[in-house]
Design brief:
By secondary structure, this protein is an alpha/beta fold. It is 35% helix and 14% strand. The chain has 2 domains: 132 residues, 3-Layer(aba) Sandwich (Rossmann fold), CATH 3.40.50; 157 residues, Aspartate/ornithine carbamoyltransferase (Rossmann fold). Keywords: Pyrimidine biosynthesis, Transferase.
Length: 308
């Protein structure tokens, strides 16, 4: 029997196919049924050391819609961190005020560190360029809803695949479903070699390309990501790849694509995806963002043990 009760959500690698599908099924139930007091008297600590809109607000919305309460911050500069307090000490103190912690931090491994320190569940809302597991759950949910299934799809990942934590997590999860993957990026932003090797070890058909030319007609889904300026140590290196890809309605009309192609993007977008796409049937990224609420409702309910 699948159980998420009191489990940390640190990496998508910690979950098998059955567990992934369990959360997706629970998210469907959360969308169909109104739960108003499921998490009554439960408190979520929302700790965001990096900027966030969708992840932070959807977690807070999910918690409040289930009757729970939220404490926390979106600017660590107003906390004791500004005085030099360590992350270890911060989460140990905050543990005494809440039932579950959602943490976003710029350092890779920060969520695991927090989980090792406290005795309540920790949910990783993004640790540097490493992992963003709840984004992966909602990406899977969106693909399943818009394509009707997860099995046997061909997906193109486009953009920053080196620093794109959403891509790393999603590719790993999709390997359970017989997905064929195309990684499309400039040479300097390729998918990490160890990730490619691991996928191939898992018998995933995966290919690296520098453009959509010649492969666009094969794709069921394009998962677009922005070039992440904040991950570059050298601004000059960022400028070399800035704007290298720009998806638009006109571009898609020039390419040979499937009529039921769907385009996802974890957002925010900058200049890699034109607004002309927004009103096309290809665009599902705003629905993708909204799916964060039922998916995070499911995760919070399962981890806090109120739904089994």
């Amino acid at each position: 029997m699948v159980s998420f009760k009191q489990r940390d959500i640190i990496s998508i690698r910690h979950f098998n196919k059955e567990e992934l599908l369990y959360i997706l099924d629970l998210a469907k139930e959360m969308e169909r049924t109104t739960y108003t007091d499921t998490l009554k008297d439960k408190i979520l600590a929302s700790l965001f050391f990096e900027p966030s809109t969708r992840t932070r607000l959807s977690f807070e919305s999910a918690m409040q819609r289930l009757g729970g309460m939220v404490i926390g911050f979106a600017d660590s500069g107003i906390t004791s961190v500004a005085k030099g307090e360590s992350l270890r000490d911060s989460v140990k103190i905050i543990e005494g005020y809440c039932d579950i912690i959602v943490l976003r931090h710029y350092l890779e491994g920060s969520a695991q560190l927090a989980a090792d320190v406290v005795n309540i569940p920790v949910i990783n809302a993004g640790d540097g360029a490493n992992q963003h597991p709840t984004q992966t759950f909602l990406d899977l949910y969106t693909i399943q809803k818009t394509k009707g299934a997860l099995e046997g799809l061909t997906i193109g990942f486009l953009g920053d695949l080196k620093y794109g934590r959403t891509v790393h997590s999603l590719a790993y999860a999709l390997a359970y479903f017989g997905t064929e993957m195309f990684f499309i990026s400039p040479p300097g932003l390729r998918m990490p070699r160890d990730s490619i090797d691991e996928l191939k070890d898992r018998k995933v058909k995966c290919y690296e390309n520098e453009s959509l030319s010649g492969i666009s007609k094969k794709l069921d889904v394009i998962y677009c990501t922005r070039i992440q300026k904040e991950r570059f140590a050298d601004p000059v290196e960022f400028e070399k790849v800035r704007g290298v890809y720009r998806l638009s309605k006109a571009m898609l009309e020039e390419l040979e694509i499937k009529k039921d192609l769907k385009i996802l993007h974890p957002l925010p977008r900058v200049d890699e995806m034109d607004e002309s796409l927004d009103k096309t049937n290809y665009a599902v990224y705003f629905h993708q963002a909204r799916n964060g609420v039922p998916v995070r409702k499911a995760i919070l309910s399962a981890v806090l043990g109120v739904i089994e």
